[in-house]
Design goal:
heterotrimer, A mainly beta, B alpha/beta, C mainly alpha, A: mainly beta, Ubiquitin-like (UB roll), 5-stranded mixed β-sheet, 3-stranded mixed β-sheet, 1 helix, 7% helix, 28% strand, globular, C: mainly alpha, Arc Repressor Mutant, subunit A, two-stranded antiparallel ribbon, 33% helix, elongated
Chain lengths: 107, 525, 104
Amino acid sequence: MRIENHPILGEPEDAREVFFTFDGKQIKGREGEPIAAALRANGVLTHRYTKKLGLPRGVFCAIGRCTDCVMVVNGRPNVRTCVTPLAEGTAVETQYGAAARRGEAGK
Amino acid sequence: MKRYDLIVAGAGPAGLSAAAEAAKCGMRVAVFDENAKPGGQLFKQIHKFFGSKAHKAKIRGFNIGSELLAEAERLGVEVFLNAPVLGLYDGREILVRIGDETRHYKGDSIIVATGASENMLAFPGWTLPGVMGAGAAQTMMNINRVRPGSRVLMLGSGNVGLVVGFQLLQAGCEVVAVADAAPRVGGYGVHAAKLARCGVPFYLSHTIVRAEGSDCVTGVTIGEVDSGWSVIPGTEKHFDADTICIAVGLSSATGLLKTAGCEMEDKGPFGRLPVCDEYGQTSITGIYACGDVSGIEEASSAMIEGRISGAAAANYLGFLPDAALKARAGELEQALEALREGMFAPKNRGKIPDKTDEGFDVSMSLLTRGYLDDAEVAGYPGVRSAAGTHPVIECTQNIPCNPCQDACPKGCITVGENIVALPQIDAGAECIGCGLCVASCSGQAIFLVNEDIGGGLASVTIPYEFLPAPKPGDTGVCLGRDGKPVCPGEVLEFKSPPAFDKTGLLTVAVPQAFCGRARFWKREA
Amino acid sequence: MTERKLLSDLVPQPDDDMVVCRCEEITKGEIRRAVHDGMFNIHEARRFLRCGMGLCQGQTCGRLVKAIIARELGISQSELDDATGRAPMRPTEMRIIASEVFGE
């Protein structure tokens, strides 16, 4: 899903490739890009399941306003992945409900 | 508590312009923004802006953003990023989150330029991953360089929907349709025409019935609405799609002004907006609002409003004498007024004019299908038949824009003093086929046509902003204004010099009979 | 304060189970029900249902909720207030609010 060449923007700026984990699985992204972008590039659309209805959510506003894309990042829940930069080794997990671990304050 | 002459909340086009203008007057200025990068939404605007030279017309949004940022830096403006302003209190004090702390700052004047947020539309399935704001799609593809999806349905035919729709095509996505519950295309006709000629169908008077899928969007159903906005049974249409973009307008992000206690007033369809004087000063002395937060308009207007408020804040604190403010604000207001004319002016919102200022009929085909009907094109002043290469300007609505006039080195094109006028072609002036007008047209509505290049062929030059770049000899099919194939087309030339700023000029040879209809080119699959 | 008046009976609508407030997962039906239970403006609906009180603080659903309340009351949206603007404007953890720095 990455846009390697663009008619107006040209080639993307050079960025170091980094490894990070999504639900324990190691995948690749570009250093400094929003976590949400790295996930989209890896085909991940579902960031969390809601607390009441247990329904999937993903990127909705992409500018940090709507908070729909929150996930558990490095153990912290409710992190807006669309505005949080990716670093080597970032641990990203699907969030269930509102808490860091399943069963706490949520599903 | 750290104190500044001016504190600006929001480093978008309005906020940066305000900061630069104030700093120019000698003020010590700090700008706070919640994002990691400055520029607000300017850096995802990759299209050429409308207006005149005074409004930075024909320059792409992200380049305007870079210029503005460089100016603010040069003038010593301090820009704090990742620093959301959490509150605005009595005595012009702000609370900002910086890192893991909250900090207080005092501004002897405050400019709130917090912009807008996207309106949303609730429909069954709208919480599924794959449904997103049009702005979100734009951020994903133009900033993050990742496609938001592969097959996209755009909900909303205002300028945001149309511009983002075209950018989705440029990013390599397929746009399955543009749907709008309104009976008419809401944005500029030229933006709609760019999409339509690429083959994107328009469904006006159609709303979304539901997004389909269980884990993510796999399809979408739209249906035609009756006069009460209810879907007429039997009119439902299904599309396979993995992404649904919502572009149903913006709302001013007035939260900070409200915490400060600024007086608000109801402006009908524009929502509840701050009461401001001509300089953007709110009901609280020394607090100003400019850009989208004081009423939704284009980024071009926001930048001018920002400068007016910046100058006014400078005057308030004695950095700019009264006479100088009057002169500066006068010149800025003139530029602002020029943008607020024409069919799409804020004052004309909701009206559907059926004639241009010049008395030409507005194309109903353009308003309901997104493209000019072949039969009606010849009626507009920019469309002429002539010997040799000549421009054909399919600009049929009064929008504030005139770069085509300045672009032509031979003076073939006239818009005149009033920049919303339709461009006219001087039949006496000689066209040298340079193509500068084609590249300068932000609406991509200018074509060069040579009706007879010999051998029963004609040539048509099309603005082309797609990859891969065509090469002479490439064969393909020419599409009409409606996006349907009209004839074969062989590439004669493709030019994209730096002066054209990425708008390539693609010249194709077509059978003579089709030179008035071929308006896009697609490589043979 | 909106004048209390008698509303006609609450008639179920096919999309009553549609989520309107995405953060707190409040449905259109719940908001309509609340209006009939006497929540005649956005402030009351927020306190009663928590719609617009989640992480995004009503940035997404504010207008939608207002439209539903207005339609249910049979009044124009301009007759209804927006939600009150309050600090913090963005979701902020309590520990950060507590780490308040004055002076430099």
